[in-house]
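Note to self: keep these together.
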Amino acid sequence: MSRINTNVQSLLAQRVLGQNNHNLSQSLERLSTGTRINRGKDDPAGLIASENLRAEATALTAAIGNAERADQVVNIAEGGLQEVSNLLNELQGLLTTTANQAGLGEQEKLANQQQVDSILQTIDRIASATSFQGTKLLNGSFDYRAQNVASDVTDFKVNGAKFESDELDVNTLVTQSAQQAGFVLSTTGTLDLNGSGDDFRIEIGGRLGSREFSFSEGATNDQIAKAINDFSEVTGVTASASGGTVALISDEFGDKEFVSVKVLEDADIQGTGVGIYGFEADDFGTVNTTIVSTYAAATNEQRDVGQDIAGTINGIRAVADGKSLRINTDFLDIEMTLETTAAQTIGAVEASSGEPTLQITGGGADFQLAGQVDVGGKVSLGISNVAVRNLGNSTDGFLGDLASGKSLNLADGEDLSGAQKVVEEAIAQVSTLRGRLGAFQKNTVGATIRSLGISLENTRAAESVIRDTDFATETAQLTRSQILVSSTTNILSLANSQPQSVLQLLG
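Structure:
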């Protein structure tokens, strides 16, 4: 070639050298930054995917931090509840000590009552002082708020609820009535033992225990009922006399309750229709006229068992115990106790016609334990108020009733058994709350942290595959580019010197 205005070989060498320099610069950039994608043009689709994965990883990291923070909050609440448990156990001991009335002086009783007052004040102080960053944990700040509660609901507790609207309707439907256990003893009003000279001996049993009773000729039904009621706290069975019968009924409702009757000596009891009768299956207030057993044939124990209520809450079959219903789902954990008439009436439990049983309007402790911010990634936890005015129930009373001047105070000692029932209920409530918080820490928070950690690991790994530099591949590419740049530079030098051969044509 003998043209000098256009050096095609030089242009070719320049183009290839530019490409090789670009590849060399790209390899140097990837190796120096450690990432394969440094800007959108490096890999547009890969950049989009890696940025999405990076955002997910950031959210997962924050969710792990949230879970760890939730664990710390519950730890503080648990510490306060543990001290409340210790105080309640001490209160139980004071009750038992005070019940030993013949061995105590008045000053000791007053001293015990002063200790009780101090314990109650300390429980209230713990309830109001236990906090996390200024937020009270045990004074009801994290309890759920409810409105329009049906009058048929005697007690309820919301342990957890997740909802996005202003309120969550709770609809309860009773599908099976709650029943007590019971028998009816027919004696025609007074015992006619046909002059046998023997006592009518009978054993009455219930959930709490059993007791043997002996009745002589001429004993009235009122006397029989009174004798049985004197031991109701031992047997769990209450008696009532009406006409020629004595009804024996369990104190509580549910299939854990029973009433048993065993005749040890019938003493040749006389009378038309005397014997043991039951109640109608669908109407516990009506006696079934079919005899269950004569007294002579009741040497083998006759037993009647109560029945738990059955029903649904928000369309979910509830776990039943006596007159209480409970469901525990990811979106709603609630338990409620119905009054007797409602618990024995099949149908909806409504605040008013067509209205739900109650409405949850807010409250609870919400923790975001997932990277995706929505109702599914939220966990709600209710922590009830453990002040003494809230520990207990509407049936037996509340812990505050043990204070000086109140109905269950120890100084008067008029109802130490009732006071112990309240303390036992308070212990059960605090223990249940501690167990629920412990389950939340172990099964919800603990499992969430482990699961999120695995997700974060896999997300980071996926992002790394897309975005990070493969050093083995890139160093090989760097070496190749270095060699090509060096060789192309030499070729460009040769191409630039080639036109000088035209001078030879000029002589």
